[in-house]
Amino acid sequence: MQKILIMGLPGAGKTYFAERLKKYIEENSVSYQMPLNALVSYELPPTNWHATVKWFNADEIRRSYNDWDFSKEGRIRQSIRMFEFAMKSNSDFVICDFVAPLHVMRNNFKADWTIWIDTINEGRYEYNLPDDTFDVVASCEMFEHDQYWAKSFKNMIRLCRKQGLIFFTCATTGRKVHGTLYNNPHDSPNTVDLGWDYYKNLTEEDFRKEFDFDNLFEKFEFTIDNSNYDLYFYAIKR
Q1: For 134-237, which CATH superfamily applies?
Q2: Fold of 2-116
Q3: Among 75, 78, 91, 187, which one has the highest count of C-beta atoms within 10 angstroms of its own C-beta?
Q4: Considering the entire predicted model, what is its pTM?
Q5: Which residues, other chains included, contact 236 with Cβ-Cβ below 8 Å and sequence gap of 6+?
Q6: Low-confidence ranges of the chain (pLDDT < 70)
Q7: CA 122 centroid distance within chain
Q8: How confident is the model at residue 190, as a pLDDT?
């Protein structure tokens, strides 16, 4: 078994590349790449052999553990977890894509092959303007496509000045899946270009689980448009 690490900044395209690499190896593997422990069971190398490939996506693993700690310690823990998942796989190749900026994280994984997706100079979610920059901060029909929606909303709050207006619209319960790799991808071209296959209809309860609205805002309101299955929100920041 050979382990392949695909690393890069958030939003660099690791998931997009990993999905296509898995398919390429499966379709283009040849008998001379066959592992020795499998080859010994044949008198002659088979001509129709195809490698088995397992792909572990970091976000899916984090979701299964409900572990969204992106601190140094959290990323080290994630690198160990990815290694353990890889070692339990019985496939010929294992692909794991995750952020691994430090040597300790890469050493924990012990990759046979390391691929660095060097497509961007800054993570897509690192919008590092100063606090209290804008009078109005808005998001329209985006959160349902954003697997980091809570982090994005937190940044919206940070960027808004006191007494400033924050508002958003997003899909809620009842809206059909759209903007994914296989469901109307043109509805969310930027996330599809990143290789994301994520979608979630969000509710007021989802947001209240993540944020203390009474302490963050002087005034706020959630409403639902049942004709379009939209969640609307506006608030005045404290």
Answers
A1: Vaccinia Virus protein VP39 (3.40.50.150)
A2: Rossmann fold (3.40.50)
A3: 78
A4: 0.52
A5: 163, 164, 165, 166, 217, 218, 219, 220
A6: 30-49, 120-128, 193-195
A7: 16
A8: 73
